[in-house]
Amino acid sequence: MRAVIVDKLIIALALVSGMAHADTAEPWKVGVTEDQKKQAKILLDEGNTLFVDKNYSEALAKYQAALGVWDHPAIRFNKVRCLIQLERPDEAAEELKLALKYGAAPLEDVVYAEALAYEKLLANQVAELAITCNKDIKVTLDGVDLVCGTQKRVKPGRRQLVGTRTGFLTKTIEVNAVGGEMQKVDVSLVPLTSAAKIEHRWATWKPWVVFGGGLAVVAIGGLVELQAQANMDGYRRQVQLQCGTTPCDETLVEPDQRDRAETQDKIAITVMSIGAATAITGGVMLYLNRGRTVYEQSTTRVGVTPLAGGGAVTLGGRF
């Protein structure tokens, strides 16, 4: 946004002291001694020289020092010029508001007319945020602490408001600040107790299904094992009956029943092993799936849509 001021116009119009037509009744002169006026005038002249040489940062420091001695609207207006050259339109708008506090009286006519022109131009170079919130909420604007209930002038563009309070969910508000527009932003927070959410790794029923399924498989394996034992007991009884008194080959006694019992025993052991492993997996899942309290990030986006044809006015030409 850096503007270029024509040197002749600077010399002709800018940097006037505007301190003529003294009147002790004028509010900007009340309580100011002659020595203070002289000291402020010296600092003002030094600042003017630096400004003409385009040393805007140094000139700004001189004007600020002069204001510390005498808060005169004309000095403040020269500060406005520096801020514009340093591409700080938001600060320039605030200072211009103070410079015009008493109207045209403390300024020369040509300077006052220039100030009014700046006011119109800066209006489209500065966005305004009206921020409201509870007094217990701490609010920052782009990382800088902010007082609620006030209007803040900022450069157009994306801005971030963050509201914090003990026991409440932190809220982030992203604002698309538009030049020449005022946006109302309310920073309201939600208690953590209301914002809390229980989060699980899996749906709560899944670990229980795995765990219960594993136990069911173990139970089935147990039933198969009981059947195997029953068949083996029957086989042993047959051996006892046939070979108890007369020596005989036990392998020839009911071989199908014995083989069936041994096969069922192997199947039972395999099934119970699988079921046990599944149940253990389900138990681990139950442990890992314990609910944990989380708080969703609270982010709000606020924006203003400019009116059609309402393009921003740039500070150009006479600057």
What features would you describe in this structure?
The protein has helices at residues 7-13, 34-52, 56-69, 73-85, 89-99, 109-123, 192-195, 205-243, 255-288; strands at 127-133, 138-141, 144-146, 151-154, 157-164, 171-177, 182-187, 196-199, 292-295, 298-303. By secondary structure, it is α+β, with helices and mostly antiparallel strands. It has three domains: 7-123, Tetratricopeptide repeat domain (Serine Threonine Protein Phosphatase 5, Tetratricopeptide repeat); 127-195 and 297-303, Immunoglobulin-like (Sandwich), CATH 2.60.40.1120; 201-290. The protein has a five-stranded mixed sheet with strand order 3-2-5-6-10, with no helix packed on it. A three-stranded mixed sheet has the order 4-1-7. β2 and β3 form a beta hairpin. α3 (56-69) runs antiparallel to α4, α5 crosses α6 (109-123) and α8 packs antiparallel against α9 (255-288). The protein starts with 6 loop residues before the first helix and ends in a 16-residue tail after the last strand.
What's this model, at a glance?
It contains nine helices and ten strands. It is of the alpha+beta class and 319 residues long.
CATH superfamily of the largest domain: Tetratricopeptide repeat domain
Q: Total helix count?
A: 9
The SS-based structural class is: alpha+beta
Instruction: Give the DSSP E fraction (strand runs of 2 or more residues).
Output: 15-25%
